[in-house]
């Protein structure tokens, strides 16, 4: 069931507006933040991130940008304490780390419809719109997430409620009618730190939903990043108490839609170091050495 966003609905603002100042001290006073995957502050932001925030939202100076980010991030932490929120992983703008990013930007400039599934703040859509440049048809960008509050906080983080043309809808990928109005209309799907949240049978359901959404033609594409592991199979991250499910090469084929003829997908993937430009390196230990970052792209042939 899709829930349209209510622009005026900001129940979290009253709380968040009081959160300014010394975030290290505040974190010590809050037991929910006494976990390894909550990093109170970032030491320094990459220059490209500072430039993006300065140009996109108009807040000038690294310090002011950081304070703005801390305030919104802490509101999101209260919604759900995901590591990608606690560790500022959303500041990776991970979509641009894909080797296929340049051609994705070009396709978006040319009018492709792109869906960011599990988009959280919608940071990757903002990055894409920024890189595609003025005049690009950003009305063809769609972001969806289970948590409507993350979508609303995205408008606060990027101060663009009245100007960002992308469509945001909250929805559960496991709902039978998930994004039903977009079936067969999507050219590209981005999955950032999403598939590893689900078991392999659940991943098959997700892939089936993607194949319903994608245009059934050559060039339709799914790409992204998630946790991976050299040894394969699910593994438990003891410190967080989660079972994680790295994706397997070729998984896109296992979500065939009823009545669909055999289609071939070219799948490429790579396994690299799990990390982020925004982390304190001394927090690296929480996820264990076996955790890697997998980048993948699947293109329909
Ligand atoms: C680990 S976060 C990744 C966020 C973002 N894509 C990124 O790369 O930083 C996973 C996101 O998926 C969303 N999510 C979890 N289960 C979902 C579901 N069943 N349907 C849609 N979104 C879901 C969460 O609310 C969260 O925002």
TrEMBL record:
Stretches assigned to the Methyltransferase domain: 115-216
CDD domains: AdoMet_MTases (cd02440)
Region (Disordered): 1-32
InterPro entries in UniProt: Meroterpenoid_MTases, Methyltransf_25, SAM-dependent_MTases_sf
This protein's record includes keyword Heme: no
Single Gene Ontology MF annotation: methyltransferase activity
Keywords per UniProt: Methyltransferase, S-adenosyl-L-methionine, Transferase
Biased composition (Basic and acidic residues): 20-32
Top-level taxon in the UniProt lineage: Eukaryota
GO biological process: methylation
UniProt pathway: Secondary metabolite biosynthesis
Family of this protein: Belongs to the class I-like SAM-binding methyltransferase superfamily.
Name of the protein: Methyltransferase
């Amino acid at each position: 069931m899709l829930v349209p966003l209510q622009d005026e609905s900001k129940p979290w603002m009253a709380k968040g507006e009081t959160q300014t100042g010394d975030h290290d001290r505040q974190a010590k006073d809050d037991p929910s933040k006494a976990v390894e995957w909550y990093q109170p502050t970032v030491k320094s932001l990459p220059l490209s991130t500072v430039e993006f925030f300065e140009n996109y939202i108009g807040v000038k100076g690294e310090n002011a940008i950081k304070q703005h980010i801390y305030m919104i991030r802490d509101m999101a932490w209260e919604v759900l304490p995901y590591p990608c929120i606690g560790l500022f992983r959303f500041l990776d703008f991970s979509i641009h780390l894909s080797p296929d990013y340049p051609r994705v930007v070009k396709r978006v400039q040319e009018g492709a419809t792109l869906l960011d599934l599990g988009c959280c703040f919608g940071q990757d859509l903002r990055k894409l719109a920024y890189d595609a440049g003025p005049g690009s048809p950003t009305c063809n960008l769609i972001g969806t997430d289970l948590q409507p509050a993350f979508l609303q906080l995205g408008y606060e983080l990027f101060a663009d409620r009245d100007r960002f043309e992308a469509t945001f809808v909250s929805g559960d990928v496991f709902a039978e009618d998930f994004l039903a109005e977009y079936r067969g209309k999507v050219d590209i799907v981005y999955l950032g730190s999403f598939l590893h949240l689900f078991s392999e049978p659940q991943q098959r359901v997700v892939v089936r939903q993607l194949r319903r959404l994608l245009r059934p033609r050559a060039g339709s594409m799914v790409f992204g990043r998630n946790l991976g592991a050299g040894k394969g199979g699910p593994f438990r991250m003891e410190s967080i108490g989660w079972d994680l499910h790295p994706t397997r090469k070729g998984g896109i084929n296992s979500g065939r839609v009823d009545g669909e003829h055999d289609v071939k997908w070219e799948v490429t993937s790579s396994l690299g170091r799990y990390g982020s430009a925004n982390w304190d390196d001394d927090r690296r230990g929480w996820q264990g050495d076996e955790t890697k970052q997998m980048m993948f792209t699947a293109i329909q042939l």
